[in-house]
Amino acid sequence: MHRLAPVVLLAALVTDSAAEGHGRIVRIESARRVSVYVPAGRFMMGVDENIAGYAREQCHTAFPAVFQHPQTGARIDFCDDYFDTLIAMAPREVYVDAFWIDRDEVTVHDYRACVAAGACNLDPLVAGDDRYIRDEWPMVNITWDESQDYCRWRGGRLPTEAEWERAARGDNRNATWPWGEFEQPKDFNHGQARSPAMREIDRTQAQLPVQMFGDPDDSDGAAVLAPPGSYAWGEGPYGTRDQAGNVAEWTADAYLGERDKRGYDGLGTINPFREGLANEPRVVRGGSWRQPTFIAKSNLRDPFASLYLRNGRFSHVGFRCSRSARVPHDTGTPVPPRGASEPPPIPRK
User: Taking a C-beta distance cutoff of 8 angstroms, is the pair 269, 304 a contact?
Assistant: First the structure.
């Protein structure tokens, strides 16, 4: 069921000497928990052949068999090509240093604070479809670079793909969802495959192929976007929320296309990261409110990864921030940033 995390209000009685002993009630909103800590460690990253085969089956159900790439015009057997990409992501043990990652996706309210501080571009608030711009909803219609700017203002950055997957899966080798290896629950904000009739109607009306989108599904309690943290049952092993569904999320890594099909060789197994070239797409993870449920699995990439150019704006793609934990040279033990138990909170009104 759709649920909202409670907001705790504290009432304080403040004596006002100017009012000769008459008090006034002050409402103080409790600070929200901004980030969660992910310890350094090894985990199994990637997709085994069974999960890749399942994803191909679901892909054939959800999308047309043949897809025309909007940039190159090439016609490909889309789902078979997707399967080949997933097979190249064969499971391997990866080590990731300790880091902090946002518990929730960045909201419009959060982003407005950055704009007000003069550190972020106004364009994401006005350049896209304003139906998705509500203070309590995740920030969408935002480019990869604008997301990075916001995270830098917070003293962080976008998470690498490896960090994102570690936060979503933890140390459970079999976990394919943030809540473990079990089949999907109804308690996350997902979409469904676009009906063939709507796909045909919209065929010539979109800049990007409408096949990459699905239809909203209100059976999960939200027809479109939901306030971050609304689906507490789907919390990840370290306390992150909405890593499955709500909005898909930018990561720091470039998507290297055909080169990815060599597998993970050459990237290494310690803090892997694909910097890529400026014109290469970026990896998006986690599924969204308008995509079929299978895309939300923690170890899968979005099937349309090659379309997520860093200057693109999408109504189903948002982000969260991360930052590296300080590691003392003498012990090698990750500890929180100096003077805090977690990164400083987002400035709020």
Answer: no
Which two structure tokens, joined as six digits, stand for 317?
A: 């793609």
Locate 173 and state its tokens: 């080798």
Count of CB atoms within 10 A of residue 238's CB? 18
CATH superfamily of 36-324: paralog of FGE (formylglycine-generating enzyme) (3.90.1580.10)
Crossing angle for the helix pair 144-153 and 108-116, to the nearest 10 degrees: 70
- pLDDT for 65 equals 62
Closest CA to 138 of 318, 288, 311: 318
Nearest Cα residue to 72 out of 81, 60, 83: 81
Q: Cβ(225)–Cβ(133) under 8 Å?
A: no
The token pair that represents 80 in the structure block: 């078979």
Tracing tokens 């976007």 back to the chain, one arrives at: 225
- Residue 33, exposed/middle/buried by CB under 10 A (0-12, 13-18, 19+)? middle
Q: Please identify every stretch of the chain with a pLDDT value under 50, giving residue numbers as ranges.
A: 1-31, 201, 204-208, 210, 327-349
Q: Would you state the pLDDT for residue 68?
A: 64
* Residue 114: HSE in the Cβ half-sphere, 13 Å Cα cutoff: 26
Residues 221, 242: Cα–Cα separation, whole Å: 14
DSSP state of 273: -
Give the global pTM.
0.81
The string of pLDDT tens digits covering residues 275-289 is: 888 889 999 999 999
Residue 67, phi-psi category: left (phi > 0), alpha (psi -120 to 50), beta (remainder): beta
